[in-house]
Amino acid sequence: MGNKILYAILYGWVKLQAMLPFPLLYLFSDMLYVLAYKIARYRLKVVRRNLKASFPEKSESELRKLERDFYHHFGDYFVETIKLAHISLEEVQRRAFLINPELIDELMREGHTCILMLMGHYGNWEWFSAATAFFQDSRIYQVYRPLNNKAFDRLFIKLRTRFGSYGIKKADTVRDVIKLKQDKVRSVAIFLADQTPSKANLHYWTTFLNQETSILTGPERIARKQKLPVVFSDVKQTDRGFYTVEFKLITSTPQTTPEFWITEQYARLMENTILRNPAYWLWTHKRWKHKRESA
User: Fold this and answer.
1) 11, 59, 164, 175: which has the highest count of C-beta atoms within 10 A?
2) What is the spatial distance between Cα 187 and Cα 184, in angstroms, rounded to a whole number?
């Protein structure tokens, strides 16, 4: 009962805030910046450690500017996600603009009914994975890790599925993706593949942002076994509250690629996206909590 009450309170508050126009929401974001960065210092030690290790060539003043820019964007991400509760599909598509959706449509015309799309926690990933109407006659499925708090988990599911997309729990990924292919459901399965693998899944290591990093290999294993095309989403922020994504085909024949080749290609593409403007990546994430054991 407690979670139901908390969810009702949370959703009511979010719905109310989402009715505000973007200028007022961004004013709220500016206040969140002060609260999170200056007062609460939310995960500031994690952010500073990540930035310093990723950009050892930058001076202290450059790193401080980068962390300030990140916290400004972090506030924007928060209010933009809230806005999902009260925004039109047309507005989302205008602000999260797909440069070349025809790549997905062409893969479907070639006979592929299920496509794996690799993204990262960059820009506003919620907007891009929320609207199934982004592609012609295709469903969007986002693979996600359920939150520990059931009320917050239910809230994010509500926001992400408002425009008809679907969620796949991480534990159900293999089963659900196989079923999508077997049923020939025209679908795009989105993986936020820059998350930290669990300790039991540290199968592939590479240099990523100047650090030895383990990369998730689950998407590659599924793609190779089920012969699913793999596409990368290259996100850019063009203005405050406006993003574009350009789809880049990693491979349409994953079964012919060497082991870990897809994973390495993703790491390089994701790194390039981040380096173009690092402030828009999720630096609060404890991305490097695992260390490679010596042979």
Assistant:
1) 11
2) 9
Is 203 contained in some domain? yes
Spatial distance between the Cα atoms of 169 and 171, rounded to a whole number of angstroms: 5
| Residue 232 phi, psi (nearest 5) | -105, 140
State mean pLDDT over 189-216. 94
> Is 145 part of a structural domain of the chain?
yes
Q: Per DSSP, what are the bridge partners of residue 98? A: 245
Alpha carbons within 13 angstroms on the beta-carbon side of residue 141 total 22
Q: Max Cα separation, the chain?
A: 56
Per the domain annotation, does 171 fall within a domain? yes
Residue 136 has pLDDT above 90, yes or no: no
Yes or no: say if 143 and 173 are a contact pair by the CB < 8 Å rule.
yes
Number of domains the chain is built from:
1
Residues paired with 167 in a beta bridge: 142
Residue 259 lies in a domain: yes
Task: Write down the residue that tokens 């009715």 correspond to.
Answer: 19
| Containing structural domain, residue 144 | 2-280
User: 209: closest CA among 91, 80, 37, 55?
Assistant: 55
Q: Show the tokens assigned to 92.
A: 């989302």
- CA atoms of 292 and 11, how far apart (whole Å): 41
Describe the crossing of helices 60-83 and 2-18 by its angle, rounded to 10 degrees: 100
Q: Say if CB 213 and CB 287 are below 8 A apart.
A: yes
Q: Where are the alpha helices (DSSP H) in the chain?
A: 2-18, 22-33, 44-54, 60-83, 89-95, 102-109, 125-130, 150-160, 173-182, 218-226, 261-276
* pLDDT, tens only, 51-89: 999 999 999 999 999 999 999 999 999 999 999 999 998
CA distance 133 to 89: 8
Structure-token pair, residue 46: 């994690």
